[in-house]
Write a structure and sequence with these properties.
Strand content: 5-15%
Number of helices: 3
Number of domains: 1
Shape: globular
CATH topology: Arc Repressor Mutant, subunit A
Oligomer: single chain
Number of strands: 3
Order of helices and strands: HEHEEH
Distance between the termini: 10 Å
CATH architecture: Orthogonal Bundle
Largest sheet: 3 strands, antiparallel
Radius of gyration: 13 Å
């Protein structure tokens, strides 16, 4: 359920970031995790602008930044506590 103090857009951004992190994989030590770009492009653009994703150009996957992974983990914890 959505809190009244969080907008629908922010809620979608937060959940997208969490899902990207949960579905990500790493292709080697020290390499940023990757996830498939099967989410709304305007949300991915916003997350890139916030520094959570690296610009992926025409690739079918995105790289999460260290800040993106940290934010996703914090958001996952936030939503797990709400059960």
């Amino acid at each position: 359920m959505i809190d009244n103090d969080i907008s629908k857009d922010l809620f979608e951004q937060e959940l997208t970031l969490v899902l990207l992190n949960l579905a990500s994989w790493t292709e080697g030590k020290g390499v940023a995790p990757r996830a498939w770009r099967n989410h709304r492009f305007e949300i991915l653009r916003t997350l890139t602008d916030k520094g959570y994703l690296l610009h992926s150009g025409g690739a079918k996957s995105v790289h999460l930044t260290a800040e993106g992974v940290a934010a996703a983990k914090a958001l996952e914890e936030k939503y797990r506590k709400r059960r």
